[in-house]
Amino acid sequence: MNYGKQATERKIKSANSKARKYTTKVFLAFLKSLFILCLFGSIVAASVLLGMVKGIIDNAPDVDISTIVPNEYATTVYDSAGNVTETLVTAGSNREEATYEELPKNLVNAFVSYEDSRFWEHNGIDLRSIMRAVRGVLTGDSTAGGGSTITQQLIKNSVFGGGMEKSFGERLERKFQEWFLAIKLDGVMSKEQIITNYLNTINLGNNTLGVKVAAKRYFNKDVSELTLSECAVLAGITQNPSKFNPISGQKNNADKQKVILQYMHDQGYITKEEEDQALADDVYSRIQNVDTVTKETASPYSYFTDKLVEEVITSMKERLGYTDTQAHNMLYSGGLSIYTTQDPGIQTIVDEEINNPENYTAARYSIEYRLSVTHKDGTTTHYSEENVKRYHKEMGDNGYDGLYNNEEAAEADIQGYKSYQLKEGDTIIGESLHKTLQPQASFVIMDQKTGEVKAINGGRGQKLASLTLNRASNTYRQPGSTFKILTAFSPALDTCGATLGTVYYDSVYTIGNKTFSNWYSSGYQGYSSIRDGIIYSMNIVAVRCLVETVKPQLGVEYARNFGITSLTDTDYNPALALGGITKGVSNLELTGAFATIANGGVYTKPIFFTKILDHDGKVLIDNTPETHRVLKDSTAFLLTDAMAASMESSRKFSSSGPSSTSPAAKIPGMSAAGKSGTTSANNDIWFVGYTPYYTAGIWAGCDDNQKLTKQNGGASFHKAIWRKIMTRIHEGKPDPGFPMPDSVETAQICRKSGKLAVTGVCTEDPRGNAVYTEYFAKGTVPTDVCNNHVRATVCSVSHQLPTPYCPERTTAVFMVLPNGETGQTDDSKYAMPGYCTIHSANSITIPPGSYPYEDETSPQQYAPGYIPQNPGTTKPIYPWEDY
After folding, report:
1. What angle (nearest 5°) sits at the alpha carbon of residue 552, between those of residues 551 and 556?
2. Helix (H, G, I), strand (E, B), or coil: what is residue 649?
3. Model confidence over 40-82: pLDDT tens digits?
4. Helix boundaries (H) for 189-237
5. Residue 509, class by beta-carbon neighbours within 10 Å (0-12 exposed, 13-18 middle, 19+ buried)?
6. Residue 153's pLDDT band (boundaries 50, 70, 90)?
7. Is the Cβ–Cβ distance between 667 and 535 less than 8 Å?
C-alpha cells in the first residue's frame, strides 16, 4: 500500500513537473514571441518614424539656404534732389537692412545671452535646450524656456512665415524641418551672417521690423549709436512684441530688461558696474519723448506720393506682368528704391501758394455727413448730407447751397438737423462729420521737354489721410475754353489749311436747337480770326472753326493724341470746341496736353518717377516716357504766339470789343503763353500755360459744383495764384523766349479777311488800320487779296450812297457782310449804307448834261425816292461806278 501510495505521489509529482515544464515552455515561448513582436513592432515603428521624419525633411521647403535673408523691406521714395520723401510700408515690411559692422557688440550680446547662450558653439540646434524644453512641457514647468536657437528662429521667420501653424501635427512637422534646415544653414553661413540676418528679421513692435528701424522708431538714432540700456530694451521686445512693447508695455519691458542685463553679466558680456549704469539710465522717458514727436510729425502721404503709388502699381502690371496683389506687395514690402521727378523747391512753392489764405477771397466749408439711427421699432436708417439739403428745402431755405461761412456754422446746422430729424426713442449708433474748405484748387507743373512732373497739389487745406481724393489727377471737370486750343484751333492750323488769320463771322450762331453765345457782353464782333479767337476766347469763332473747318471727329482725334483719355462716343458734337464734354478732364492730362505745344508739338507722357531699383540695387523699371508727335513745330509756334498775346493787355480790333483774357497770369520778366477756361455757369475755372522751362495748370471750383459767385470766391483768383507760383519758380532764370522755327514766315494781311491787305482800303477801316503782320507756316501765306473791305462813293453829308441830288461826294471804306448774315455785329455797323435820305428833288436842281440820266438836255425834277435809270433800261445807276 505504501508502495502504491508512493508511486501515486511520484506520478502526481511527475505530472505536476511536466505541467510546470510545459507551462514554463509555453510562457517562454510567449515571452519570446512577445519579444520578437515588440522588436518587430519597434523596428516597424522606428522605420515608420524614420520614414515620416525623412518624408517631413524631404518635404522641407526647397530654398537656397545661402539666401535666407529678410525678404520684406520698406520701400524708400526719393525726390529729384536725392532726399527721402516717403517710406512706403505695410504690416510686416517696415524693415531696413543693417550690416554686422553696424551692430553694437552689446546689441548682439544682449540677444545672444537671452535667446541662445550657446549660439557661438552649437551647429544650428542646441540639444540641451531642446531637452530642457521637452522636460518643461512634460512637467508643466513654464519657466524651462524654449528650445529654439537663433538659427532656428531665423529659419522660422524667413522660411516658415513666423510659424503660424494651427495644429500640433503641423507644428511638429515644421519643427523637424526647422531643425534640419538650421543644421544645414549653420554649415554654409557664418555665425555673424546668421545673427545679422536674424536681427534684420525680427518684429520689434509698432510695425518695426529689424533693429535698424527699431532704433529710429524708439530712440531716433542709428542702430550703431545704441547704448547698453537701449540694446537691452530692444532684446526684451522680440519674445512678445505686444506685451513687451517699450511704449505700451513699459513695465513688462523694464522687467525683461533687468533679466537680460543680468544674463549678460552672468555670461561675462558686461561688468556689474555696466549693468548698474544701464539700470540707472532713464531710457523709457526718452522713448516716450521720441514717440510723442513721431506722432506729432507723422503725416499722410503727399498728393504727389498718392499719384506715385498709382503710377508705380500700373507700371508694374503693364511692364512686368504683375497682378494687382503682386504689384501691391512689391511696392510696400519689396524694399524698392523709387527715384521720383518731384522737385522739392517747386513743390514747396506750390503748396505754400495753394494753401495761402491771402490768395482767396472766400473760405467756406462743405460737409460730408453720416448719421445712422436705430428707431424705437428696431429699424435702422442712414442719413447723409443729401438729407440735410432736403431738410433745408423743407424748411423753405431755397438759398441754401451746401456751403457754410465757417466750421461752427456747419456744426450748428447739423445740430439743428438732428433736432428736426430725431424722434423720441431713436438711438444714434454712428455719426461722422467731415468739413472741407471751399473753393478748392489743384495744381500741376511739369517739364515739357522730359515729361517729368515736378510738383502737384490735389487740394487746398490740410490733407488728413493717404490715398484720398486727388483733384490734380483723379478728378474730372469740364475744361471750358481751354479745349478750343486742342479740338478746334490746333487741327485747323495743323491739318486743315487754316492760318492764324483765317476769319469766321462772329454773330448769332445756331445748330439744331442749340444757340451758342460768347462770354462777354460787348456784342458780336463780325469777322474775327483764329488769333482773335485765342486771345479773346471767342466761342462762336471756335465752334464755327470746329464745325466748318475741322469737324468734331478730327477734333476728338487730336484731343486723344494730346493725351486726353476721358473723351467718350457722345463727344462728337459742336460743344466739343468749348469743352462741353461728357466726363470732363483731369488737370494732369490737360497740363500734359499743353506741354505738347510747349515742346514743339511732341507729346511726352507725364511721369512721376525715373527709375525703380529692387532691394539688391538692380534696375527694376527704367521709366523712359512715351512720346509721339501731335503737331508740326510750325503749328506749335503759331499757337504759342497767339496764347502769349492773350497774356498781354489788349482790346480786340473793334468799336467795343472784348479784352484779352489772361493778363492777370503774366509773369514779370519771363515769356509765357497760356489759355484760360471758364464753364458757362462759373462752376470750373482753369488756366493752363507754359514758359520756356515749365508747363503748369491750375483748376479751381467747389467740389459739389456750386457756382463761383462773389460769395464763393469769384471766377478770377486762379490766374493770380498761377502767376505767383510761376514767378517764384522762375526767379533768377534767363528768358530765352519762344524762338521762331525755320518752318515759319511772316506776311502782312488784313485782320478782317485773313488775306493780303489792300493799301488804301484795309488800312482805312473805320475803326483804324486793319493791316498787321502775321506768322504763317511756310507755304500757307495767302495769295488772294482782301474782299471783305470795299471803298465806295458816298454823300459827303450823309455818308450814304449818293443820289443825283447829293451836291458833294467823297469815298469811304465799308464792310461786305456774308450772305444771309442779318444780325447786329460790330462789322454790320460799317456795312454798305443805303441811299442818301438828306438830299432830294426838293432840295436841288440838276443842270443839263451834268449826269448821264434819261434826259440830259434840261434840268430834271424827280419825285422824292425816285432812282434815275439808264436810258431804255431799268438798271439803277450807281454813282461809285465812276471811281
Report:
1. 130
2. coil
3. 555 555 444 454 544 444 454 555 665 566 666 789 999 999 9
4. 191-201, 211-219, 228-235
5. buried
6. confident
7. no
**Letter for the amino acid at 102?**
E
pLDDT tens-digit series, residues 124-140: 677 776 666 555 444 54
C-alpha cell of residue 741: 522755327
Q: Nine-digit cell at 485?
A: 486750343
Longest dimension (CA), the chain: 210
The letter for the amino acid at 79 is D
Main-chain dihedrals φ then ψ at residue 837, nearest 5 degrees = -110, 5
Which secondary structure element, helix H or strand E, spans residue 721, and what is its range?
A: helix 717-729
Query: Which three cell numbers, joined as nine digits, stand for 352?
Result: 505754400
CA triple 261-96-320, angle to 5 deg = 155
Asked if 823 and 524 count as a contact pair (C-beta separation under 8 A), the reply is yes
Cα gap 644→594, rounded to integer Å: 13
CA 382 to the chain's CA centroid: 32
| Strand pairing report for 509-511 and 514-516 | antiparallel
b/e 56-90 (16+ beta carbons within 10 angstroms → b): beeebeeeeeeebebbbbbbbbbbbeeeebbebbe
Among 461, 455, 466, residue whose Cα is nearest residue 441:
461
How many Å is the Cα radius of gyration of the chain? Answer: 45
- Provide DSSP, 549-561: II-HHHHHHHHHH
All residues at 6 or more sequence positions from 117 whose CB lies less than 8 Å from its CB, including other chains = 263, 267
> Rounded to an integer, what distance in angstroms lies between the CA atom of residue 596 and that of residue 606?
10
Distance, C-alpha 570 to centroid of its chain: 26
Grid cell 544682449 — which residue?
Answer: 110
The rounded distance, in Å, linking the Cα atoms of 667 and 728 is: 9
Query: Distance between CA atoms of 574 and 708, rounded to whole angstroms?
Result: 25
Q: Which residues neighbour 382 within 8 Å (Cβ) at sequence distance 6 or greater?
A: 370, 371, 372, 373
Q: How far apart are CA 487 and CA 480, in angstroms?
A: 12
Going by the DSSP 8-state scheme, the letter that residue 575 receives in this structure is G
Q: Which three cell numbers stand for residue 214?
A: 527699431
Q: How far is CA 235 from CA 112, 218, 268, 291, in A?
A: 9, 13, 17, 19
% pLDDT > 70, the chain: 81
344 grid coordinates: 522739392
Element (H, E) at 444: strand 440-446
Q: What is the pTM of this model?
A: 0.78
Q: Are 307 and 470 in contact (CB under 8 A)?
A: yes
* Bridge pairing between strands 684-690 and 673-678: antiparallel
Within a 13 Å sphere around the CA of 578, how many CA atoms are in the beta-carbon half? Answer: 20
How far is residue 130's CA from residue 145's CA, in Å, rounded to a whole number? 9
Neighbours of 570 (CB within 10 A): 9
Q: How far apart are alpha carbons 417 and 388 in whole angstroms?
A: 7
Read off the pLDDT of residues 615-673 as tens digits, 9 standing for 90 and up. 889 999 999 999 999 999 999 999 999 999 999 999 999 999 999 999 999 999 999 99
CA distance 318 to 768: 60
d(CA 709, CA 364): 12
